[in-house]
Every structure is written in structure tokens, then in C-alpha cells.
From TrEMBL:
Recorded coiled-coil stretches: none
Membrane topology: Multi-pass membrane protein
Transmembrane segments: 47-67, 73-92, 128-151, 157-178, 198-223, 229-249, 261-280, 295-317, 324-341, 361-382, 403-426, 508-525, 556-576, 588-609, 616-636, 683-706
Domain CstA N-terminal: 73-634
Record's GO cellular component terms: plasma membrane
A Pfam family matched in the record: CstA
Subcellular location: Cell membrane
Biological process, per Gene Ontology: cellular response to starvation
Chain spans, region Disordered: 1-25
Record's protein name: Carbon starvation protein A
InterPro entries: CstA (IPR051605), CstA_N (IPR003706)
Similarity comment text for this entry: Belongs to the peptide transporter carbon starvation (CstA) (TC 2.A.114) family.
Length: 761
């Protein structure tokens, strides 16, 4: 059998990939350019389909942004999002693939070249999509849009949908591809290779510090969702043994039986939710699982330490696959329910808080704080860590990076838009009662009613009965000040889904959603800790080479312990924060996350410039410029604003002066201890804000200089790993094309002992 010829439009690489020779005894490892064109050939039916998608999307956007009256039907949000995503994936990501990445399936990926059964393993693209999506989809797409609903529905909708197509998915795809071409190197190590010692060191330090903040906030959202909720604690706890069982089942009992184990896992999950309601209703269950937030926080810290050390196949991969099955299923189910129920949205396009700096949910003007609050729903630096952490070490073929990187981020954005719709579909009074801090509401029904009604919201008249009835309907003692976004999203999902089963099922749907959200976030916590360990090992490895060996157990344990101690300390600080940890820490999380995105895009811009791809450099430069302006502006406001509700240092000074004056309570802090905690926390937050923005500016500046130098020289030094011929084949997208199915059939005819090993978790 003759080797596959190189694609006609492929640019010869200096590493010799243009002369890769395939083993003639194996079937083809890649499609030819002709086969790719044949599979993508336009037909009248395809043209009609894409015209229909474009028209439906245009109508949906018109209804949301232009025609809007006193109410807007929620189904238009679903149609606007889905149509825009489909067009972005089909056309915009194809432009990136054709002119920037230029994948070559004849090259072996790191998963194939370095397969070790631990961190490097060729993994089925569908399972890897699940693992990647589960790892990137943490608290951000759930929390950010819910908090951003304070500003009204339109600003968040525009940024979530358009931002992901032009910025978020672009970053994820390019970081994943370039990391894969470099042996799965972390974004920090890539920065050091591409930007030199100064820019690289700044990027590494920034990435490590920002990762600590990000994982801490992810864990804090879980704590707030599960705090004093025995039903939720039991159900989420049960997902750990379920995931372990699935890992062992796929590894040793029934290898490769993905559908089989999916059904088993789903049944066990539903059983865990139903059993959670029964356990919570017993005296012993209530006593065992009704845990204070501090205890849950310590439990998550221990979990993060263990999960980051275990082999990826045992807990991380099956748990991510299991949670993705739940995540995507729930979001698609919610979207379908919205289209069928068609709830009317009464929240204004721009709310009463869109024009000011202060608000009951979070403080800051719509520009720039809407963008940093939504965070992961549109663009996330955390994703760059995953895309250069676990995923590039598992990807089977180069062309799969578009499906996993760009496609995975689009799905996360869809989660964000569904979270926004769920938040704006509930009563506005209940929304603000749930998302305002305990210091503002006093944590009581009476306090919440008085506070919300004092906001002067049009058409809002909250009553005690509304809050008590809402809590009773979902089986909770209280829904007052359940900050963090997750409870609000769960309440919105339960309200919409109860249209099919009646209010009697509200409690089930609420706790089903809580478990779904906790699964979302815990997978990001364990994956984030694992990636943080990789980053720290890479960094220490520059001085102690032994640490670069990711299989060296002492290095693994030390690096994991250091990173867990870092984010665990921030988590405990957030849990005990008198101002409401999520309300004060989330702006720092959002800014840090977006600054990391700017750093990742800066590294990518330098790589693209060094490749000599100057005609398409704007695809990276535009989102980098926008993100840099947003995040640097937000950082400056948090550092220099004289408004205590906005500026960390202004708040620090106000509470410090109150303590010096002998005050025993001040603002929302009801005791001297609480005031001292605010002074301590704002000092930490303000200091980190300064460090983050300085490091990001250094990286961006160095990247611009490297890009200019590359432009003048017509390119730069290639830092990709040498190309090695691949000895395996796999389809590029979710569904195999006709040509791909033909090649798969050829591989299936090979004797089992001649086929390359494949781990298909």
C-alpha cells in the first residue's frame, strides 16, 4: 500500500514533515487533500441548510437586540446561540485550520510518540472531547453569566456568543495545537521558549499564581453550592466511587465498552440523586451530610491532592467523561425545554445597574467589569492551561484539535448562555435575594425582603412568602444569599423543568442541577490541580532537571502539595470572608483569568508570527488587543479606584481607618474580627492585582517585540518537536466521513496484534 501524498496546500516544514514516509505495510494514516475536498463538497442540500441556519440566526438576533419589547421569548436566545456557533465552527475555525494551523495527520502526536499509560495516551476523540470539555467547563460559565445578569440580558448575550467565536474558541484551538506540536508543553514553558527569559519567566510566574486563584474560586463555588445541603453533599460524594468504578471497568473488566459503561454510569448517577433525597430525610443522613462550609472546603482540598496524583485513567478521565455525559445532556435538555416552554423574559435589556459602578451582586461599571465577570463563558485563560496541560498529551491525530479545541469551547459558551437564560427567567426579586451577600441581606427572609425592595427595581415587590415558598419548593431550608451562581442556576433549571412534571419535582430538579454543577466544577478542580502540577514541575525543572520527568513520584507529590496548599489557603480565606467570598473574590478571579488569556494569546501571536503567517495574524491580534484593554483597565480600577466598593485598596483603607478609630463594626462587617479579615483579604487581593497586571504587561510587550522582529526577518526560530511518522488512523470530527469510514474499515481488517494500542476510555 503506497504512502499518503502530502496535502497540496501544505507548507513544507523545516523539521522535515514534508518528507514523512508512512509504513507501506499499514493502511493510510491520513486522508489525502482530494479525499478531504470530496467529503466537504458543497451540494444543493448543504447550501440550503446553511442558508436556513443563517436566516434563523438573523431572526433570533433581531428579536433579542432590536425588536425587544416589554418581554422577550427565551427561545430566541437558544436559536441565536446555536446558529452563530454552527456558522463560527463551520467557517471561521476552518479558516484558522487552513491558513494558520495546517494540521498534518501523517505526523505522530505526543500521545502516540510518548505513550506511557499515565499522562501520554492516544485517546478516542469523543472521549477526549468529553475529558477536555469537562476540564475547561468549571465555575466560570455557570457563575459569571448569573452574576452578569445584574446588568440586564443584552450585554452578556452579545459577549458570550460573539466573544467565543472570535476570541475564546480561537485561543483554545491554537494553544492546543501549538502545545501538541511541542510535545504537550505547558503555556508557561512555551512562553519561555518563544519569548525568551524575561517574557517567559513573567508568563510562568503569572500562570502559576493565577492558577492558584482560579482553582480556589472553582472550589469556593462548590462549597457555596453544597454548604449545609445534605442532599447535595451525598450525591456529589457518590460520584467519586462511581468514577473509580468506571475507570477500573474500562481498564480491566470491559476495555473499550464506552456505551456500556456510559449507561451504567448514568443509572448510578440518577440513583445517587434519588438516594440523596432519601438520605437527607433521615436523622443519621442529615447529621452526617449536613456539613458547614469550612468542612466541605477541607474535604475538597484533600480530594484535589489525591485526584491530581492518581493515574489519569483511574479517576480523571472516567469522571470527566461521566460528567460531560451529564453536562452536555443537561444543557441540551434545558435548551429543548426552553424552546418547548418558551418562558417570557421580563428582565430589561439594560438594567438599572448597567450605568453605574455599584450593584447588589457585584461592583464595577459595565465596561470593563461585565467582560471579566462573564469570564469563561466567552474567553478563559484557564482553558489555555488545560489546552497545554492534559489534553495535548492525549490527542490521537492532529486534525482532531479543531473539533476538541474550538468545538469544546463553543459548547462551554452554550452552557454560559443557558445559565444566563436560567438566571433571567426567574423572578428578579428572588434573583437578587439569592445573589446578594449575607452581609447585605442579614441571611434572613425579612432582611432579604427589606434589602431587595429598597433597590427600587421596576416591577419588583418581593414578599416573605415568595422566599419561603421558593425554598420549600426545592427542598432547602433557605435560598437567601446562596451566592456563587450555582444555586441560582439550579433554581432556574428546576423552575423551567417543572413545567413538565409539576412543582412536585422541583426538589429533584434543583438537586439534580446542583450535582450537575458540582460535577462541572470538581472536574475543573482536579484537572486544574493536575495542570498546575505540570506547570510547577516544568518551572522547577529549569533549575532541577529531575522535576521535568512527570513520572518521577517525589516531584509529582511535592509539586502537587505546593499547588494544593496555595489554592487551599485562598479557598479557606474565601469561605471565611465576611463580605461574602464569591462576591469579593470573583472580580479578582475574572481579571486574573482574562489576564492569563491575554498572556496565552500573546504567546500564540509570537508563534504565528515566527511561522511567517502574517496575513492572518489579525485573527490572534484582535482578541489579544481587546482582552488587554479590558483586563488592564479593570486592574487599574481595582487598584486605583477611590470607591471602596470597587477598589481593593480603597476598601482596605476604609476598614483599616475604622479599626484605628476604635470602631467595633463597619459597613457589612459586624465585628472587629470581621473587620480585620476584610483588611487582611483586601491587602492580599490588592497586592495580587498589582502583580498580575504587571506580569501580563511584560509578557504582552515582549510578545509585540518578538512579533515585530519576526515580521522584519520574515519568520523566526521553529521550536516544534521533530516530526515522526504516525502509525495509526482516526477520524477528525465527531462523526466519521465517508472517506474516513473506508480507511477505518481497512484498519479493522488488520490482525489484532498488528494494530497499534489505543486507550479508549
Amino acid at each position: 500500500m503506497t504512502p499518503n501524498p502530502p496535502p497540496a496546500d501544505a507548507t513544507p516544514e523545516p523539521d522535515g514533515s514534508d518528507v514523512l514516509v508512512q509504513d507501506p505495510n499499514l493502511p493510510p494514516v491520513a486522508l489525502t487533500e482530494e479525499e478531504q475536498k470530496k467529503d466537504a463538497k458543497w451540494t444543493p442540500a448543504k447550501i440550503a441548510l446553511w442558508v436556513a441556519i443563517a436566516l434563523l440566526g438573523a431572526v433570533a438576533w433581531t428579536m433579542i437586540a432590536i425588536v425587544r419589547g416589554e418581554t422577550v421569548n427565551a427561545m430566541w436566545f437558544v436559536f441565536a446561540a446555536v446558529c452563530t456557533y454552527l456558522i463560527g465552527y463551520r467557517f471561521y475555525s476552518k479558516v484558522i485550520e487552513r491558513y494558520i494551523t495546517k494540521p498534518d495527520d501523517r505526523r505522530a502526536t505526543p500521545a502516540e510518540r510518548k505513550a506511557d499509560g499515565k499522562d501520554f495516551m492516544p485517546t478516542d476523540r469523543r472521549v477526549l472531547y468529553g475529558h477536555h470539555f469537562a476540564a475547561i467547563a468549571g465555575a466560570g460559565p455557570l457563575v459569571g453569566p448569573v452574576l452578569a445578569a445584574q446588568m440586564g440580558y443584552l450585554p452578556g448575550t452579545i459577549w458570550i456568543i460573539l466573544g467565543v467565536v472570535l476570541a475564546g474558541a480561537v485561543q483554545d484551538y491554537l494553544v492546543l495545537f501549538f502545545s501538541m506540536r511541542r510535545g504537550g508543553r505547558t503555556i508557561g514553558q512555551m512562553a519561555r521558549d518563544e519569548l525568551g527569559k524575561i517574557g517567559g519567566t513573567a508568563a510562568i510566574v503569572a500562570a502559576l499564581l493565577i492558577m492558584i486563584i482560579i482553582v480556589a474560586i472553582l472550589a469556593l463555588v462548590v462549597v457555596n453550592a453544597l454548604g449545609e445541603s445534605p442532599w447535595g453533599v451525598f450525591s456529589v460524594s457518590m460520584t467519586i466511587p462511581i468514577a473509580l468504578f468506571m475507570g477500573i471497568y474500562l481498564r480491566f473488566i470491559r476495555p473499550g465498552r464506552i456505551t456500556e459503561v456510559s449507561i451504567i454510569g448514568f443509572v448510578l448517577l440518577i440513583a445517587a440523586i434519588i438516594a440523596g433525597g432519601w438520605v437527607a430525610g433521615t436523622d443519621w443522613g442529615y447529621a452526617m451530610f449536613h456539613l458547614p462550609r469550612e468542612v466541605i472546603a477541607w474535604g475538597i482540598i484533600v480530594y484535589g491532592m489525591i485526584a491530581a496524583i492518581l493515574p489519569v485513567w483511574l479517576l480523571l478521565a472516567p469522571r470527566d467523561y461521566l460528567s460531560t455525559f451529564m453536562k452536555i445532556g443537561v444543557i441540551v435538555m434545558l435548551a429543548g425545554a426552553i424552546v418547548l416552554v418558551r418562558p417570557e423574559i421580563t428582565v430589561p435589556a439594560f438594567s438599572e445597574f448597567a450605568g453605574g459602578e455599584l450593584g447588589p451582586v457585584f461592583n464595577g461599571a459595565i465596561f470593563p467589569f461585565l467582560f471579566v465577570t462573564i469570564a469563561c463563558g466567552a474567553l478563559s485563560g484557564f482553558h489555555a492551561l488545560i489546552s497545554s496541560g492534559t489534553t495535548p498529551k492525549l490527542i490521537e491525530k492532529e486534525r482532531q484539535t479543531r473539533f476538541i479545541g474550538y468545538g469544546g469551547m463553543i459548547m462551554e459558551s452554550f452552557v454560559a448562555i443557558m445559565a444566563l437564560v436560567a438566571a433571567i427567567s426567574i423572578d428578579r426579586g428572588i434573583y437578587f435575594a439569592m445573589n446578594s451577600s449575607g452581609a447585605a441581606t442579614g441571611g434572613t427572609i425579612e432582611g432579604a425582603v427589606a434589602f431587595v425592595n429598597s433597590l427600587g427595581l421596576t416591577g419588583v415587590n418581593l414578599t416573605p412568602d415568595m422566599l419561603s415558598s421558593a425554598a420549600a419548593s426545592v427542598g432547602e431550608e433557605s435560598i437567601i444569599s446562596r451566592t456563587g451562581g450555582a444555586p441560582t442556576l439550579a433554581f432556574g433549571i428546576a423552575s423551567i423543568m417543572s413545567s413538565f412534571g409539576g412543582t412536585a419535582l422541583m426538589g429533584f430538579w434543583y438537586h439534580f442541577a446542583i450535582m450537575f454543577e458540582a460535577l462541572f466544577i470538581l472536574t475543573a478542580v482536579d484537572a486544574g490541580t493536575r495542570v498546575a502540577r505540570f506547570m510547577l514541575q516544568d518551572s522547577i525543572g529549569n533549575f532541577i532537571p529531575k522535576f521535568k520527568d512527570v513520572s518521577w513520584r517525589p516531584g509529582v507529590w511535592i509539586s502537587t502539595a505546593v499547588m494544593v496548599a496555595g489554592w487551599g489557603a485562598i479557598l479557606i480565606m474565601g469561605v471565611t470572608d465576611p463580605l461574602g467570598g464569591i462576591n469579593t473574590l470573583f472580580p479578582l478571579f475574572g481579571i486574573a483569568n482574562q489576564l492569563l488569556a491575554a498572556i496565552a494569546l500573546a504567546v500564540v501571536m509570537a508563534i504565528v508570527a515566527k511561522r511567517g503567517t502574517f496575513g492572518w495574524l489579525w485573527i490572534v491580534a484582535l482578541p489579544l488587543a481587546f482582552t488587554a484593554v479590558i483586563t488592564i483597565t479593570a486592574s487599574m480600577q481595582k487598584i486605583f479606584s477611590t470607591v471602596p466598593g470597587v477598589g481593593y485598596w480603597a476598601q482596605h483603607a476604609a476598614f483599616r481607618d475604622a479599626l484605628a478609630a476604635g470602631e467595633t463594626s463597619f459597613g457589612t462587617a459586624g465585628s472587629v474580627e470581621a473587620m480585620e479579615a476584610v483588611v487582611r483579604n483586601t491587602f492580599i487581593q490588592g497586592t495580587l492585582s498589582i502583580i498580575f497586571v504587571v506580569l501580563a504587561i511584560i509578557v504582552i510587550a515582549v510578545s509585540v517585540l518578538v512579533t515585530i522582529k519576526a515580521f522584519r526577518n520574515g519568520g523566526g526560530v521553529d521550536t516544534e518537536d521533530p516530526a515522526v511518522p504516525s502509525r495509526r488512523f482516526a477520524p477528525a470530527g465527531l462523526f466519521a466521513t465517508k472517506s474516513e469510514r473506508r480507511i477505518e474499515a481497512e484498519w479493522a481488517k488488520l490482525p489484532a496484534d498488528e494494530r497499534p494500542e489505543s486507550v479508549r476510555h
